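Lab notes, practical 5.
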Amino acid sequence: MTKNVNNVHAYGDITQAIWTSPLGTASPSTPTAAYPAGWSELGWVDDGGVTESQTYQETKVYGWQGASLLRVLRSQAEHSFKFNCLEETAAVLGLFRPGTTQTTTGATADVQTITITGSPTGGTFTLNNIGYGAASYTAVYNVTTTALAAALSAIIGGTVGVTGTAGTTYVVTFPASLGNLTVMTAVSGLTGGTTPTVAVVNTTPGVNGVTSWPVKPFVSRNLRQFGIDLVDGSVSRRFLAQSAEVTSAGDIVYKADALVVYQFNLDVYVDSSGNFFTELTNSPVVGSGLFT
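Output from the prediction step:
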């Protein structure tokens, strides 16, 4: 077989992510589609990345007449992933402290207004610095308020409200629990009209509230859906597990010269079709059907 360096992958891209959602939440159908509302990203993962492993029990059968191995019977299969999260977000702490309920008081919503001038007739505009992350979103010049709200909600993992007039003004109200946010920036790719521009201002700065989070004994389950995205240039891989559970692994150490790391084991359970998970990829080699 001809060797192909393009089949050697190093998965390391800012768009890579681990996502989670409640059971039954709609899942993306392609390896690059945006996650629907209800999914939350776990943020930065340490440079150890994600480790995938599978285990099973083996019973080896030998012949009575000699020591030759005749069969290997495999049973009790398991499939799991390991990763370490670096961000202290509600999504991460919710997995680390299952069954707990946080309460935030005194927080107010951050409101930001997107204004488009020049009456564009085409093109797009890109919003950067969405929420607390480095996420971006590119919208058509006259994106509806409903579509923009859905896209921003999917990015931050919470409900974002958007009002206004499509193609002119969008008033974006973030969840109050997020408190004060960095103002989004906008890059214009608008066309037509009269020198169209787009800008974002902080209409009402949010206020950070006080969150109390009573930590219960580890008795609750983390049975949820999970998605793991890997990217190497133009090749994307996405693992979607419909039924999985996270458990914390290891101590959490708070030091002046070290990052706080939340270690997780993700155990994947079989779904209604008997599969551990579904892997989606746009790799031409995987799609060649070599082993089918």
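Observations recorded by the TA: Residues 103-211 form one domain. Residues 34 and 102 are 28 Å apart (CA to CA).
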